[in-house]
Amino acid sequence: MPSKPRKNIDLYALTWRLPIIIWQGIFFVGPVLFMLAMSFFLVVNYRMTEAFEFVNWTKMLSRGYFWDSYWYTIFIASVSTICAMCIAFPAAYALAFRASESTRRWAIFLLIIPFFTSYLVRTFSWFVILSKSGVLNGLLSNFGLGPYTMLNTNFGTLVGYMTLTLPLVVILQTFSMANIDKTLIEAARNLGCKSFAVIWQVIIPLAKTGLIIAAIFCFILSFGDFVAPFYLGGSQEPTLPILILDTTKSGQQWPRAAVVAIMMMGTLFVVAFGGIALAYRKRKGAK
Amino acid sequence: MNANRTLNVILGIYVALIFAFVFAPIIFSMIFSFNSQRFPTIPLGNFTTEWYVKILNDPDVWEAAWNSLVVCTSTALIATFLGFCTAYSDFRYNFRFKGPYLALILLPPTIPLIIVALAMLAWFSKIGMSGQIYSIIIAHSVLTAPFAMAVIRLRLNQMDPDLEAAAWNLGGSEWATMRHVIVPFCKPAIASALFLTAAVSFDEFAVSWFVSGLNKTLPVIILEIVQGNIDPQVNAIGTFVFLISITLVVLAQVFLFSRQLKSIRP
């Protein structure tokens, strides 16, 4: 990169470099660090007072309901990730290998739209569609089926998670497979590899990095979402985000909510870095 | 060959089903908004504009719409400015701690919104900035700047780095080069970033809900109505929200991709 002779303080460079440092420093790093500190504060007479006590940590982490909620959230987010990855795969495969360039571009164009459009209203819409006397049960009754209870179940929660994650997962999977060198697949076919074997032994290993990144995003989104488990799952088993919501909004117990939030961030950190390590690990025997 | 064609048909139907699932809630919400039944079911009730009349006569909705407009416009401007600065710094310079520097802008969207909401609420209360309309704008610009950065960085990738050097050799200062070469080159991406960040801000509800205090935006109003019970007004507001955010996202993509195609084809 060519560059002009340097002065001691490069005003021009700083003009472009500093804004984000200052802005995110005050309004992103600040809040996150404060939340860390807040987990050691005390709540006296419904007012938060600055302190350095471990009482919030010991209280939260010794409660059975916290750990119930913790493992349930990990469980339901994992199920959501597996479902999204499996449901999306055939569609992404079709878009990556069977569709024309322009079809693929249109499909991605259309899938980007719902990812950025009101998730809240879409969830509410599912609430109406899935309810006992709702549209879906109405349709099924024409075939003599139902009515089924779909709201306030894990199924309802998962429908919400799929609404949130499926567009993104299909997009990421399609990108990761569309970049595969088609001649490698031809070669495998010519050597007598069957279609499904091509998928398992050629396509998935080659697209591994992108696929794992899709799974990580799906897990993060499901793990942190409170709308689907709250409205569609009925929050019978509260997930961690619902726990944060309840503790903050009704109980005024911000420090304890901070403990939950930090535990969530720690978990996501481990999942994300574990996933990335897996994604970039060389396969055994690969040269 | 025949089996292959059958497989293609099956896969085609499968993709169509995925799209049906993804777009069903949007389309149904629009249908329900014109439906007279309070609890929509099959067969549908009569056509009505009752819910629209209701929300149009609700001053809270109007105020929320105004707040949303102010928030998403201001957010778009701030976030796009921040995104442009960072994208250009990343494109032009190599410096120490560049990894953490980029993490600073790229990390916020990977943290669950409910956590960001809690952290922002606590921090804004601490520094005496909570419950204001600018609290939402600040929080949203932190969350959306990465999208602006990504879009503009993609565009800069297509620029020949020698273009900048050529402008300097012709006697342009760095500032003049920025104004006459780089900004014009990035214009479509800047437009795209403005629309995209506006769309994200317009739809965001968790952080807005926590930090907004009494200054509710449209998604916050929706959230509060939904908490009560099934109310078809949500579908009417929702349809309006869908139309705006879909328009914004489509515009963002049109600006980004149509120019990209032109620059690829000689």
Summarize the structure.
With 287 residues, chain A is an all-alpha fold. Chain A has helices at 11-38, 55-61, 64-98, 101-115, 119-130, 135-141, 154-178, 182-190, 195-206, 208-224, 227-232, 240-249, 254-280; strands at residues 42-44, 47-49. Chain A has one domain (65-280): MetI-like (MetI-like fold).
Number of helices of chain B: 11
Question: What pattern of helices and strands is seen along the backbone of chain B?
Answer: HHHHHHHHHHH
Mean of pLDDT of chain A: 89
Q: What would CATH call the architecture of chain A?
A: Orthogonal Bundle
| Rg on CA atoms of chain B, Å | 23 Å
Describe the main β-sheet of chain B briefly.
none
Using a beta-carbon cutoff below 8 angstroms, give the protein chain pair with the largest interface and the number of residues from each chain. Answer: A-B, 85 and 90 residues
How many strand segments of chain A? 2
The residue ranges of chain B in which pLDDT falls below 50 over 5 or more consecutive positions are: none
Strand order, largest beta sheet of chain A: 1-2
Q: State the end-to-end CA separation of chain A.
A: 33 Å
Q: Determine the number of helices of chain A (DSSP H or I, runs of at least 4 residues).
A: 13
Radius of gyration of chain A: 24 Å
Count up the domains of chain B.
Answer: 1
Strand content of chain B: under 5%
Outline of chain B: globular
Q: Helical residue percent of chain B?
A: over 70%
Strands of chain B, count = 0
CATH superfamily caption of chain A? MetI-like
> Which of globular, elongated, flat, extended, rod-shaped describes the shape of chain A?
globular
